[in-house]
Q: What sequence folds into this?
């Protein structure tokens, strides 16, 4: 089993999760983070660190977010690993809990 970064991370990218990851499985894109499912060891440390609840166990991803399983895998092979938290976007609070953000994902 692995953990998955879901739609709520888009344009928020808060990064609290990054520094607790013992295996450096987070990858950073322009406006979202993803988890490499091949590197994730299911330690559960990142999930409670996410203040916007964008990280879920693959078994808990809602039906309307299932595409993020494949998206995390795909983008983790394209984006660089991130091991230290950086400053989140200035407008991250404005994007919390906004629906339908997939169209805003920057690759």
A:
């Amino acid at each position: 089993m692995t953990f998955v970064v879901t739609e709520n991370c888009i344009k928020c990218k808060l990064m609290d999760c990054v520094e607790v990851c013992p295996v450096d499985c987070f990858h950073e894109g322009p406006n979202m983070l993803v988890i490499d499912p091949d590197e994730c060891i299911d330690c559960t440390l990142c999930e409670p660190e996410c203040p916007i609840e964008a990280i879920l166990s693959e078994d808990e991803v809602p039906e309307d977010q299932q595409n993020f399983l494949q998206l995390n895998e795909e983008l983790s092979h394209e984006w660089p690993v991130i091991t230290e938290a950086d400053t989140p976007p200035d407008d991250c609070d404005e994007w919390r809990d906004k629906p339908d953000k997939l169209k805003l994902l920057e690759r």
Observations:
- Strands lie at 3-5, 26-28, 33-35, 55-57.
- Residues 3 and 57 are 4 Å apart (CA to CA).
